[in-house]
């Protein structure tokens, strides 16, 4: 069993090529007892973005706060709190903050995707 506040979970600045002003927190994963899967919280600061990329594993996403753009296979989709998405493996994607406050989203991936 695991219980904690996201306020207490380590923030990691994402330094991947193509990322700008992105923080990742690993909320629940194998270290907390959830073998095979990882739930992460990403905070994208204003004018920030994740890398535009694709990979073999799927994503499940939930927008927590802020407004942003979800780029999927060549199209930009405005998203706001309450939006959910399933992104199949092999789909080019990116999260972009074009707002004036943090854009925060939950991302669940198989353990192999938590790189």
UniProtKB/TrEMBL annotation:
Residues 41-109 form the Cupin type-2 domain. InterPro entries: Cupin_2, GPI/OXD, RmlC-like_jellyroll, RmlC_Cupin_sf. GO terms for molecular function: metal ion binding. Keywords: Metal-binding. SUPFAM superfamilies: RmlC-like cupins (SSF51182). PANTHER family: CUPIN TYPE-2 DOMAIN-CONTAINING PROTEIN, OXALATE-BINDING PROTEIN. This is Cupin domain-containing protein. The lineage of its organism: Bacteria, Bacillati, Bacillota, Clostridia, Eubacteriales.
